[in-house]
Design goal:
Rna Polymerase Sigma Factor, Chain: A; 1-deoxy-D-xylulose 5-phosphate reductoisomerase; magnesium; binds magnesium ion; alpha/beta; manganese; binds NADPH dihydro-nicotinamide-adenine-dinucleotide phosphate; single chain; metal-binding; 2 domains
């Protein structure tokens, strides 16, 4: 029986993680649920899963939860996420919070030698060197939840890095894959939130439309698998059936396929190295799909992807700036304060103005993260 702390329980990945846990009551139980503010979604989950600890974003929400569940221990903020992630009883931390706010809890859980199922890619983009260095030091496994990285992890299947020619990440293309750059000028928030293949949280859906999601994933793959950027490629694959591939030196290519359903990589991260039944997921019917499509990426139309490669290759604090500028710009776009194409412009400006710091420590990263958000807000004025 694995005891789980789940950060981001009310989100798209959080809810699907609980779907998986619900299927296998003999294998998993919930120690702690952490969420931000969405009590409508959270209350029924707390009733059903009866966690020992609940973590929320601020004091107001804490009081609401305490009022409803007087016997449950309620914590708040980053300190609360850290306590819930490092508690003695916890076996696995599922980090499915949105944004770099998940970084301190990830670091603390590694130091407490917890197994980590990582959906929170911003953590690896903003501080990949620190996370991976700590994971090596404390000999902790970071199991990918992101579907592309789960596919690569499965396709690598323990092979040596020297045998790898390149990693090939597939991209569905997001909501705007058939639009020209001119078309992108007038797109709205609702247009961007309408993803063809996956139902996800708002921020990652915008990231998919801007192709920044793929950029973040390239950086995530670099850190998780210790592969240089020159050996990581992206290919457009509309059907999202091949979740990603590894090409080896002998030209052999190994891929992982399945219907697009996040419960598959979520469950694999929780059961690895075993596999359990996943009855609620549709089987892949290749005869019905019949044809799969592949196209090269257009790096001019999807400038965010190019910016991500540039920031990744520069390294150091540059990816912290990339991530923070993107989080801030997407928030402004979702609030209707900037246009879709302003997102990439604001990120580019932030990258241009930044002087790279080679090996930033955790405090430096958290400071740069806050400063970058502030700067992005001020360019706007
Ligand atoms: P959602 O926006 O659906 O959910 C985000 C979760 O994080 C919510 O539970 C939210 O709480 C919580 N949260 C946000 N800010 C804070 C905060 N400051 N303190 C505490 N909790 C907070 O996101 P997704 O589930 O889509 O994505 C989560 C992560 O997984 C992201 O890093 C994303 O890139 C990654 N991912 C997602 C995929 C998907 O299919 N959705 C696929 C692959 C990766 P509340 O709403 O209650 O405020
Ligand atoms: Mg992905």
């Amino acid at each position: 029986m694995k005891q789980i702390t789940l950060l981001g329980a009310t989100g798209s990945i959080g809810i699907q993680t609980l779907d998986v846990i619900r299927l296998h009551p003999d294998h998993f139980s919930v120690y702690a649920l952490a969420f931000g503010k969405n009590i409508e979604k959270a209350f029924p989950l707390i009733k059903e899963f009866e966690p020992e600890v609940v973590v929320v974003q601020d004091h107001t929400v804490k009081q609401q939860v305490e009022g409803e569940f007087p016997t449950i221990r309620v914590l708040q903020g980053t300190g609360g996420m850290i306590a819930a992630s490092t508690a003695e009883k916890v076996d696995v931390l599922v980090n499915a919070v949105m944004g770099s706010v998940g970084l301190p809890a990830t670091m603390a859980a590694i130091e407490a030698r917890k197994l980590i199922a990582i959906a929170n890619k911003e953590t690896l983009v903003t501080a990949g060197h620190l996370v991976m260095e700590a994971a090596r030091k404390y000999q902790v496994d970071l199991l990918p939840v992101d579907s592309e990285h789960s596919a690569i992890f499965q396709s690598l299947n323990g092979e040596k890095n020297e045998s790898v020619e390149r990693l090939i990440l597939t991209a569905s293309g997001g909501s705007f894959r058939d639009k020209t750059r001119e078309d992108l000028v007038g797109v709205t928030v609702d247009d961007a939130l309408n993803h063809p293949n996956w139902s996800m949280g708002a921020k990652i859906t915008i990231d998919s439309a801007s192709m920044m999601n793929k950029g973040l994933e390239v950086i995530e793959a670099h850190w998780l698998f210790d592969i240089p950027y020159e050996q990581i490629d992206v290919i457009l694959h509309r059907e999202s059936v091949i979740h990603s591939m590894v090409e080896y030196k002998d030209k052999s290519v190994i891929a992982q396929l399945g219907t697009p359903d996040m419960k598959v990589p979520i469950q694999y991260a929780l059961t690895y190295p075993d596999r359990l039944d996943l009855s609620m997921t549709k089987r892949l019917n290749l005869e019905e799909i019949a044809t799969l499509h592949f196209q090269p990426m257009d790096y001019e139309r999807f400038r965010c992807l190019k910016l991500a490669y540039q920031a990744g290759k520069e390294g150091g604090s540059m990816t912290t700036v990339l991530n923070a500028a993107n989080e801030q710009a997407v928030e402004l776009f979702l609030k209707g304060e900037i246009s879709f194409l302003d997102i990439e412009t604001l990120i580019e400006q932030a990258l241009e103005r930044h002087q790279t710091i080679r090996k930033p420590d955790l405090d430096t990263i958290l400071t740069i993260d806050q400063e970058t958000r502030q700067q992005v807000r001020s360019y706007l004025k």
